[in-house]
Amino acid sequence: MIAFPRGWFITGTDTGVGKTLSSSALLEALGQAGVRAIGMKPVASGAEPDAHGMLVNDDVARLQAASSIDAPASAICPYLFRLAIAPHLAAMAEGREIALEPILATYAALRQRADIVVVEGVGGFRVPLGPDFDTADLAQALDLPVILVVGMRLGCLNHALLTIEAIQARGLTLAGWIASSIDPDMLAAAANLDTLHRYIDAPLLGHVPYLPEPDANRQRVAAARHLDLGRLLGNPHHPPGTAYVTEHNSVAASPD
């Protein structure tokens, strides 16, 4: 039986670099391999009411759709704000305050139901969540290995290396990184990817190409094909799309 990590904390070199696509693709790949995995978004900014008056955030909805365990938005996102601005500012606008304890409680509850919890951060690694509390503090409190999503665009080398320094300064493990192509016109993209490969002392878990697919489900499935799940779970020879034995299932069936 494979000893799964408790989960991963997904961070990015910036906002808008493909964290949600990478997180949902990872959940998709885990589900296809028979692993009970669920996504978590501790804090989300930018929500609109649906037909029933319930606030809906696109990132949260994508994580829900990708998870192999059903859960309402409130069970995976303890802090959801209307304004699409920095979380601490969005909280202030609503007269609220983000606290660590409800986030840790949410994570603990999800861990009871899943083999792996994929926790997607907000923005980059040092986004303020309160007067003396940021996403780096959150990652440290969760004590999860970190996966870095590198948005492949001009400036990504500096952003990636600085973020890795910040991760290591917190005593956290960099489990791997994902190259996320967000600029289809990026010059010297292959050379930048090669440079990152040489400088980053952690496995490249996949290179997600630019995927202008309007359907979120098809986009997620397409992105999952570019991730190396075996590397992440410590089995580089594990064939893609086959099952793992999990603590919840004595034998996890391979997907059709």
TrEMBL record:
Enzyme class: ligase
Keywords recorded for this protein, A-Z: Ligase
E.C. numbers: 6.3.3.3
Keyword Ligase: yes
This protein's name: Dethiobiotin synthase
Lineage: Bacteria, Pseudomonadati, Pseudomonadota, Betaproteobacteria, Burkholderiales
Gene assigned in the entry: bioD
